[in-house]
Amino acid sequence: MRIKKFVARSMQSALAQIKKEFGDDAIILSSKTIKEPENPEWKQAFEITAAIEKKVDNQIDSKPKFSQTLEKVSRKNRESSSLKNVQFEAMQKDLDMIGDQIDLLVNHIRYQSLPHIPKLLQNKVKTMIAGGISPTISNQLVDELMLNLKGEDFLDNDLIDNKIILKLKNNIQVSGPIRFMKGAPVYVPIIGPTGVGKTTTIAKLAALYKYNYDRKVVLISADTYRIAAMEQLKAFAEIANIPFEPIYNPNEFLEKSKKFRNADLVLIDTPGINPKDMKRMIQLKDLIRFSHADEIHLVLNITYKNEMLRDAIKTFGIIPFKNIIFTKIDEISNYGDILNICKEFDKSISYLTFGQNIPEDIALADRKDIATMILRGKYGI
């Protein structure tokens, strides 16, 4: 067995060296960050100890890479050139800049071929990207794994899965359940685009807290744009024996709130709004202001495309919501956008819904459950 230490400025460069000298069958024995005295301009260096079962020909890849050709040419030029020191330093800076650009290019290409990391990790990265996790986050996660795994760890599928789930879990934010106040009702508006399942979600929350937690719940419908939605919620309230109040004007909140003094939870159904309709978005903002909301939950349909989810979050950002409820998680197998949104927008996930049954098909968001769903690509609540 051949064993060798490789030192480079970046993890990608070190792994590329291992690939060049040992090939795809190399085994990573250990990895760590160090200070490199010979290159004091580096903030840190990566030292990876790798091994190969048998001696291999260094010329595994007969076709030289662009970065290798560039280095060869620049080295030849440096040896033969009689440039003054100032000129040489300027040229060196240019080469360093080109080298950084090459690193970016390699970083992009790795998402597709990933030739420089162990095969089991290659498959995991591809699984994460296929599951909707952004390539940038997937790349970051695998780099962290490379520093924490060694030797035969790279052959242990269950160990790698558990470590990935742990890292995914640590990057997911959840809000916990609705926070109640002693001696006063908590006002919770539910907002969201049209057609995401807001009214059904409110019914699930109402039934959950009334029947499972014995809370005094009141339902308010401020969705005067869709009579059908108001009638649907009113019909549910009558069946569930939950007080129901319609609100046609934001000013009615102050008057009707006197009826809710003994309640624990006041759930407010708001109009579904097209994120591009700024006029109605401003009206919703005024409605929320009059409601004296204690916490606001944005409802999003997880089956929406990434750009639709991001546009909705940005547009509804004029309202100070912190929590997101994802609906219809049983209808897809790609859950990576949950992680992407947590990272990009610094929002917390409060609940997940996954069917039409009330109140069974709603669950409090759990970081480990979500992380497992993302990696497995399987609904598992």
Q: Keyphrases for this structure?
A:
381 residues; alpha/beta; eight-stranded mixed beta sheet; three-stranded antiparallel beta sheet; 11 strands; 16% strand
Provide an overview of this structure.
The chain has 381 residues and is of the alpha/beta class. Among the domains are: 1-62; 186-376, P-loop containing nucleotide triphosphate hydrolases (Rossmann fold, 3-Layer(aba) Sandwich). Helix content is 44%, strand content 16%. The chain has an 8-stranded mixed beta sheet, with helices on both faces. A 3-stranded antiparallel beta sheet has the order 1-3-2. Strand 10 (348-353) and strand 11 (362-364) form a beta hairpin. The longest helix has 25 residues, at 85-109. The chain is elongated and about 80 Å long.
Summarize the structure.
With 381 residues, this protein is an alpha/beta fold. It has helices at 11-22, 66-80, 85-109, 119-130, 135-148, 157-170, 198-212, 227-240, 252-256, 278-290, 306-315, 336-345, 367-376, and strands at residues 2-8, 27-34, 45-52, 186-191, 217-221, 244-246, 265-269, 297-301, 323-327, 348-353, 362-364. Helix 4 (119-130) packs antiparallel against helix 5 (135-148).
